[in-house]
Design brief:
It is built from ten helices and seven strands. The protein is an alpha+beta fold. The protein has a domain of about 100 residues: Winged helix-like DNA-binding domain superfamily/Winged helix DNA-binding domain (Arc Repressor Mutant, subunit A). Strand 1 and strand 2 form a beta hairpin. The protein is elongated.
């Protein structure tokens, strides 16, 4: 039977609740005092906020923002559009007129107010990934990996996946998530938790159908349960996905694993 999901650290569980709780993995959401801030004034306000959060600690020059979000506009038009977007963002984040200026402007640069405390799921995810990758075994490591997996609700900025500036971060975070799932898959396989192993393996293949190690882990998982026909089908799935996605045959290790499964040898 699969273990229940490990509890992840949420904004509400912190010693002092943050001023803003921000979810970027999956649909973009911002909570203030437990209340979802919605709807966004417009797409540019949302994009500006995402950029400032993802680059916080590094003030963004106004020219950079103008070029990033209004590349085709004349300088004066882009400057006006940026001013309008910043004003809209300040009003959106204020949500209750607490008097706090969430977006600061200094020396021709914009930045989020460092006095406003933030909880950002991307940052928490990366902390958990780091903790889970410090070793290969142990309850603490597995718990950190479970918590990281629970935080990953979907790709970065899932509701707006086509912004070029975030493409590299989106790929990096998905690769980290797949690595987390691979580690969890191996952990559950070693622990004999076949349901949890299969769940992690299937999640990997949903993102990367030609992930050979995930196919191999599922083959082992099914064979150890005596589900040899299912293990055979998994091998055939592996062959097909590798051919379709990479134009490659299975590795010698995978072929040897399949031969042992066919011979009903321990795997």
């Amino acid at each position: 039977m699969a273990d229940p999901p490990a509890p992840c650290v949420t904004a509400a569980e912190l010693p002092r609740p943050p001023d803003l709780a921000i979810h970027f993995l999956g649909p973009t959401q911002v909570h203030r005092g437990g209340t979802l801030l919605a709807p966004w004034p417009n797409r540019r306000v949302k994009s500006l906020f995402k950029y400032l959060v993802m680059h916080r600690g590094r003030p963004a020059p106004k020219e950079l923002l103008m070029d990033r979000f209004w590349p085709e506009a004349r300088a004066d038009a882009a400057r006006n559009s940026l001013n309008v977007a910043v004003h809209g963002l300040r009003r959106f984040l204020r949500a209750g007129d607490d008097g706090v200026n969430h977006v600061l402007f200094n020396e021709d640069c914009y930045a989020l107010n460092p006095m406003v405390s933030l909880w950002v799921d991307v940052e928490e995810f990366e902390r958990k990934v780091s903790a889970g990758c410090r070793g290969d075994h142990g309850i603490a490591v597995a718990d950190a990996l479970q918590e990281a997996a629970a935080l990953y609700r979907g790709p970065l900025f899932e509701d707006e996946p086509y912004e070029e500036w975030s493409a590299g971060s989106r790929r990096r975070l998905q690769e980290a998530y797949v690595d987390v799932l691979e580690r969890l898959c191996n952990h559950h396989l070693a622990a004999g938790d076949h349901a949890a192993c299969a769940d992690a393996g299937r999640k990997i293949l949903a993102l990367e159908p030609a992930h050979e190690k995930a196919h191999a882990a599922l083959m082992r998982c099914f064979a150890r349960q005596g589900r040899y026909s299912r293990a055979h089908r998994q091998y055939q799935d592996c062959v097909g996905e590798l051919r379709a996605g990479l134009n490659l045959p299975p590795s010698e290790l995978t072929n040897q694993l399949f031969a042992r499964i066919r011979a009903r040898e321990p795997v």
